[in-house]
Each structure stands twice: as structure tokens, then as C-alpha cells.
Amino acid sequence: MAQDDVKTIDQLNEEADIAADYLEGLLDIADYEGDIEMGVRNDRPTVQIVADDDTDIKHLIGRNGEVVDALQQLTRLAVQQKTGERSHLIVDVDGFLKRKRQYLRDLALDAIDAVKDTGEPVDLKPMNSFERKVVHDVVREEGLKSRSHGEEPHRYVTVYLKNKSEDLVDDDDLDQE
Predict the structure, then answer these.
(1) Who wins on pLDDT, 127 or 3?
(2) Of 154, 131, 13, the residue nearest 146 (C-alpha)
(3) Among residues 169, 133, 105, 152, which one has the least CA distance to residue 42?
(4) Among 81, 113, 124, 129, which is most buried by a count of CB atoms within 10 Å?
């Protein structure tokens, strides 16, 4: 499937099913109790692990989300192995990504306020591609400009005021996951 091709809802649901089966197997191996919730959001399959035991859940999130990021990468590989196509599946554990998005939104809004107050660009701390994309989206929504700089894993976002002649953020400046 070409990168520009849009997947059908059936294909997205199939990816979520494959991912859920894979994650259930991992939970069994780790002897963790948890429920798997599946869906499609923003044209992406999503799978969330929800558990009653906070201790187990914390282990599945890890410090700064490293474990949930690894689970997502492994699950995407499992889906790709079954379907033969790259997946943009999102794996979440106990609402971690929702909380992370809100934190990033607040961080971006603080940077936007600082840029508006001083007129000077603001550099944010290094972030992964998911985090940078959230920040770029918020900055664009608020009418400012952002650009990523640096090399992984030290890539970071700078927030700028738009020049008077600029109407849109240059799409080349945005990180895409």
C-alpha cells in the first residue's frame, strides 16, 4: 500500500484486533491482569491497556513512558508482520497518552505566551516525534510558527512569532510520526 493510500475502517479494525491479541499475549507472559480496549481515532487504530492494579500499570508505562513507547513499537512490528504493511497504531496504558498530551499542550501554551510577551523565539527541551507533533499542532492552532532542530535523540522544537507575510506554517517544518 502506498504511503498516501488511506486505509479502510475494516483494515484499521483488523490492525487493532491483531494488536490486542499480541498485547494480551504479552500480558499473559508478564502475568499482569488487564483489559484491552480497541478503537479507531483520527484514522489510526488504537489499543489501550486498562488494569485494576496500579502497580502493574506503572510497570507498563515506565519512567517518562519508555515502556509504553517500547510496547507500541513492538506491537506495530507484530501488526506489520501479520498484515505486511506499516501500521500507525497507537498503544496507550491507563490514559498515559491523554495525560502526556495535556502536559505538552500546557508546555506549548506557556512557550507561546513567552514568545508573544517577548517577541523572542523559545526553545523547548528535546522531545520524541510524538511530543514534537503535539507541540507543532498546538502552535499552529494558536497562530504561531514552530520548527524542529537538532538530531535524535536531542531534537527539539523552537516556537516563533509569524512574520507578517506568513499565513501558514511551512509543512516541511512539521515532524510527522
Answers:
(1) 127
(2) 131
(3) 133
(4) 124
Neighbours of 53 (CB within 10 A): 11
Contact of 160 with 144, CB cutoff 8 Å = yes
9-94, what's its fold?
A: GMP Synthetase; Chain A, domain 3 (3.30.300)
**pLDDT tens digits, one per residue of 15-70:** 999 999 999 999 999 888 889 999 998 899 999 999 877 777 888 999 888 999 99
- CA 83 – CA 91 distance, rounded (Å): 17
Give the start-to-end residue ranges of the domains of the chain. 9-94, 99-160
Q: Is there a contact between 146 and 173 (Cβ–Cβ < 8 Å)?
A: yes
CATH assignment, 99-160: 3.30.1370.50
The answer for residues whose C-beta is within 8 angstroms of residue 61's C-beta and 6 or more apart is 67, 68, 93, 94, 96
**Which pTM does this prediction carry?**
0.76
